[in-house]
Amino acid sequence: MPTPYTELSQRLADLTALEEVVGILSWDQEIVMPSGAAEARGRQLATVQVIAHERLTHPRLAALLDGLQHDAALDATQAANVREAQRDVRKATRVPSALVRAQGETAVRGHEVWVGARKNKNFQEFAPVLGELVELAKQRAAAIAPDMPAYDVLLDDYEPGMTMARLDPVFARLKEVLLPLIAQVRAAQNVPDMAWLGQHASAETQRQVGENIVRAMGYDFTRGRLDTAVHPFCGGAGPTDVRITTRYNEHAFLGSLTGMIHETGHALYEQGRDLVLADQPVSRPRSMGIHESQSLLWEKQVGQGAAFWQAHYPKLQQAYSFLREKPLGEFLFGVNYVNPRNFIRVSADELTYPLHVILRYEIERELFSGRLAVHDLPAAWNERMQGYLGITPPDDAVGVLQDVHWSGGAFGYFPCYTLGALYAAQFYQAAVAQHPEIPANLAHGAVEPLLGWLRRNIHQVGSRLETDALVTAATGRTLDPEAFLRYVTAKYTALYQL
Amino acid sequence: MPTPYTELSQRLADLTALEEVVGILSWDQEIVMPSGAAEARGRQLATVQVIAHERLTHPRLAALLDGLQHDAALDATQAANVREAQRDVRKATRVPSALVRAQGETAVRGHEVWVGARKNKNFQEFAPVLGELVELAKQRAAAIAPDMPAYDVLLDDYEPGMTMARLDPVFARLKEVLLPLIAQVRAAQNVPDMAWLGQHASAETQRQVGENIVRAMGYDFTRGRLDTAVHPFCGGAGPTDVRITTRYNEHAFLGSLTGMIHETGHALYEQGRDLVLADQPVSRPRSMGIHESQSLLWEKQVGQGAAFWQAHYPKLQQAYSFLREKPLGEFLFGVNYVNPRNFIRVSADELTYPLHVILRYEIERELFSGRLAVHDLPAAWNERMQGYLGITPPDDAVGVLQDVHWSGGAFGYFPCYTLGALYAAQFYQAAVAQHPEIPANLAHGAVEPLLGWLRRNIHQVGSRLETDALVTAATGRTLDPEAFLRYVTAKYTALYQL
Asked: Is A364 one of the annotated active-site residues of the chain?
């Protein structure tokens, strides 16, 4: 007879394997699947997901968890494993399957309608199904935690423990510093010519340069691969199979590179997970916000910094003749260039990006509290865009319809992007405080001791600690926007000579 | 409440989806998976396979099948679907899971030991684990059908209904005609120089030429793809996702091409399956032998014939300068060249190939009847090789250890290769008898009406008919080696001017 904990581990390992299978089927669908297979792939995915849901909601699993959750004989890792599994089971059990099915079906329809509405630049085509998706998300929240505000329950899906009460002051503080800083940048006169950013660079050269840098960052190609995707992502199946993707625009060579560095940040987190416990929830990345902190730490803190490019800029100069005569400083300006007149979140710079997120957060809050009606969304969107960035989208396609998330019924996700940016700054500054040689080492192309610090404090920890405990153990304090604000203020004051 | 047949169909559709998932995981493992993911992939595959086995042996499925198997209200297709599912369930239920596990684990070990033994050219290293694999296969056969000879049960795994009693006279007749024919070929003096077969041809050119021909054969790239594999195969997930693979040797340009044509034959079968019933057993390819008939029909009957190359040889001449001055007749001799001094089955020509198979069949028979002991295999092998082809392998690596099948516990599979060759000749001759314009159309690059005939008589039929009924409906008779013997006698008598 296995012990209850052993039986639990076996059941959780099977669930992990099924999740990994979904990871491979999804990667395959995006990267290599022939177009004619889409319908069959839908059936395959649904079959595996239904089986996983049946197993996650199996009474035996709940009984094992109930029996173990106050078991004093468990060590800290085992107890954390029980806690994480308990969280999954509770959510899966509380949401009725009819609601799961309704959400799934409405999301499929929502995506189709959104594609058409965006093409027609007409939000009102999308409004009815968006209303349904909001209603279903409210029902889901009520099923999980009827005593909590619905939007807090949704935030918790992506960022366990996060609430509006915690986010509000953080976002208020960001606005307080970023809005005047952006105004100063906008007024700056000394912006050099940056036509070189659009010079021709072949996809193959971009791939070679990128692969070289990705490898230098510590990405292990024996446990991953690099492919081309329409919408780049980091996917795969567990820490030994972490696949990154990028896309190549032959007239925007920086895009594939920063994209690759970003996905490699995610990938280093996955590859750095505890291999012994890889099939247990306790080894999983902590949250979406912490995951994003890893991609943004490499993309922004490291990959937009002078030290990193001291090591790698010569490779670019060798690959691209148009950079041969360009000094590193000018290249760095291009890498960090701020464009406050940009409507689109995904192409926003790090200074304006938080405002794109705050705008969506504030709108989502009001949608779920009932203060804002779905059909009033475009007006609310445009008003805030004008208030924060001083621009008004010419149409809904580059305004309220630009992001895919709502069409799939994902609400409460956007804050993770900015939480990631804040955590990234906190982590990087803590790592440098403990290892002051990090910048000098990066300048020589060495990712140690930075990578080792991340391995020990984030990657290997996985979900052993809850988010606040993890961040406190790593940085000495919980979520704190000041690290990010210090960083952007110093950086952009210097860059724009404010 | 669904009807019993509807409930059955749903359960079978889920099983099909799981099989397709295994198909994608396996393709991924061979073609794109990073090496470090092997262990995790093993766990993922095992998890899905255990779930599929649980569902296949679920008492509810057996009860539904028992209730439906004499239901006069079912139409012919439904009844065939019940029959095919019943067969799967019966085998899965009768074999104890401890035996399944023992076979799986021994096969993994067997493969490792075989790799080492082949490297060391020493069969006796492999003998003990091979003995275990034979013993386990006997146990499996006894569990499925205790009253049948073990080897008949194993044959039936791959070729339902096939027995030693049916194979013996067929193989005796093949030997009767092929042995003297091969002796004549061996004595023939007029073999031209064929050094051109080893001329350099880049992998990329080989791919382009091959893809062009594969497309012309009717392979649908919107429901498939072509990749490079160490051991080429046709895989994927159901009729809308049929993936072929090949390998390129830059000093053997014909190999990738005939390999691609072969795999395309398999792929056309899969792509031609009944799409409406794609998730039910009744739409499955009939057997391994019938599957091989489709690859060999295209590779040999069509792809080694003058008509096909009248259409496609000019493409090769354009791609490869060393063929520009070479007449079609000389090229065709190279395509069909017979080498009776070849030890290796996979590189054998169509005249000697059946003898490689008969040798293995005779040895397997004797192993399972107990007339031959495992440690006497090399002697039995070499003696038959000398008797059939007049050659003795210099060592076990190119003799008894050359094939992977036994190391995985697969016994009774080899006859399918030759059954495929015999069925291919029967089908092709029947198609031409019904549509005499087939060769002339092939000479103009048109695969119709041949492909249409295969679609109607083989691909769309799937498993609606059992093998004998399928072959009789298509050709007017059951398995009959005379079509193949007529074909090779005529062809090689002309080619070698015997």
From this structure: no
